[in-house]
Amino acid sequence: MIGDGRPVRILHLHSSFSLGGKEARATRLMNVMGGRARHSILSAVPDALGARAAIDPGIDVEFPGDAAPALHGKPGLVRYRALARYMAGFDLLLSYNWGAMDGVMAHRLFASRRRLPPLIHHEDGFNEDETARRNWKRNAFRRLALPTAEALVVPSRLLERIAAAEWGAARRTQLIRNGIDVAAYAGGPDVPIPGFERRPGEVVIGTVAGLRKVKDLPRLVRAVAPLPANVRLVIVGEGPERNAIRAEAAACGMADRLVMPGFMAQPARWIGHFDLLALSSLSEQAPIAVIEAMAAGLPVASLAVGDVVEMVSAENCRFIADDETGFRAALADLAADLALRAMVGAANRRVAVERFDETIMVAAYENLYGRALEGRRLFSGD
Q1: What average pLDDT is seen over the chain?
Q2: What three-state secondary structure class fits 292?
Q3: Which of 10, 64, 82, 370 could form a disulfide with 68 if both were Cys (CB 3.0 to 4.6 A apart)?
Q4: Is 186 in contact with 348 (CB distance < 8 Å)?
Q5: Cα radius of gyration (the chain)
Q6: 3-state SS assignment for residue 208
Q7: Which residues pair with 218 in a beta bridge?
Q8: How far apart are CA 313 and CA 315, in angstroms?
Q9: Topology of domain 182-355, CATH
Q10: Fold agreement (8-179+358-372, 182-355)
Q11: pLDDT tens-digit readout, 177-203
């Protein structure tokens, strides 16, 4: 399909381009592609472009904005035709999450008549409105839209099962685990967390999350509040639930033990300030924050959401709880025992090296995208 040696033209259709797990992965893959690709990025939330700062300066990338058809709006043939016309100018289409599904539907309707390039769709999870049961209208829309996708990429076994059972996409679904540069976490922290200074004898429970309802961070505050006074909670991230989290801490009498520094880039440089990672989400798939904590040699206390219990080491599994009572107990046990934290953290580090290094992830995407481009190599890494 592409034999002239020019960079591959890739159109990214994002539900949002604020920095989160899927954006961190997408920008990392863009950076690894280097000069082999040119990128155009559309966001269904036009002003949500915070992840652009994670793209290396040398990457050829544009944000067309109003020069491209809107990715959001009322479904209709006029919009879909305009999107299809725009898509025809690229070599590969990459769409991400429900917010980009109009682009997938445009491909479904016009792929053959306009000879559109291959499309690969990525699904990474759900918001709080679909944690227990998916919206039937969205499921039906996915079933209609996905048949012309070259592949549907998911990061967890849970999403793989949902794709088969609810979207009828079993044959085109591919599981690719998220990965990070595990080696970067070996050296420990070298930058401070704003507003945090460790006190003698202190135990730090930390989490990294967008401050959204689906993360249920007030639940984490309530779980930490009864722990001894030497236990502090650090929540790294930004989002609309900031005030609700602070209010919960005040109501629990632990406002002075809560640190909320906002968003921080490069977690390898500061996540080691935590003594353990806690996850209180209503819904997850394969959280990158868990992989980051494991790479840093930390134990993880979490509710049993997504693939978390399959991700952590065998030694860590008993701290993945089925309910809030078990979650509070896991936090208490880990906070009270330094030797236990060290043992579980070391086991997690070994698993991170073996299963979650980004070289494994990059190779899988290399193969998938390369097949769609008839063998064209995209990644410049080894």
Answers
A1: 93
A2: helix
A3: 64
A4: no
A5: 21
A6: strand
A7: none
A8: 5
A9: Rossmann fold (3.40.50)
A10: yes
A11: 999 999 999 989 999 999 999 999 999
Q: How far apart are CA 110 and CA 112, in angstroms?
A: 6
Q: What is the pLDDT of residue 71?
A: 93
| Residue 2 pLDDT grade (very low, low, confident, very high; cuts 50, 70, 90) | very low
At 30-52, the pLDDT tens digits run 999 999 999 999 999 998 888 89
Residue with tokens 């135990």: 203
Q: State how far the alpha carbon of 193 is from the alpha carbons of 204, 207, 249, 274, 311, in Å.
A: 12, 13, 19, 10, 27
Q: Which long-range contacts (CB under 8 A, 24 or more apart) does 61-65 make?
A: 61/30, 64/40
Bridge partners of residue 191, in order along the sequence = none
Cite the DSSP H helix spans in 270-377: 288-295, 308-311, 324-336, 338-355, 358-372
Q: Where are the beta strands (DSSP E) in 66-214?
A: 92-96, 119-122, 151-154, 173-175, 203-208
If you ran DSSP here, which 8-state letter would residue 54 be given?
Answer: G
Under a CB-based contact definition with an 8 Å cutoff, are residues 120 and 150 in contact?
Answer: yes
Q: Which residue, among 364, 372, 377, 361, has the nearest Cα to 148 in the 3D structure? A: 372
E-strand ranges in the chain read 8-14, 37-43, 60-62, 92-96, 119-122, 151-154, 173-175, 203-208, 231-236, 258-262, 276-279, 300-303, 320-321
Query: Angle at CA 183, nearest 5°, toward 268 and 357?
Result: 100
Cα–Cα distance, 106 to 78 (Å, whole number)? 10
Residue 269 backbone phi and psi in degrees, to 5: -90, -10
* Class for the domain spanning 8-179+358-372: alpha beta
Per-domain residue ranges of the chain: 8-179+358-372, 182-355
In whole angstroms, what is the distance from residue 118 CA to residue 306 CA? Answer: 29
Q: What distance in Å separates the CA atoms of residue 373 and residue 264, rounded to the nearest whole number? A: 36
Query: What does the alpha-carbon distance between residue 274 and residue 276 come to, in Å, rounded to a whole number?
Result: 5
> Global pTM?
0.83
At 46 the three-state DSSP class reads: coil
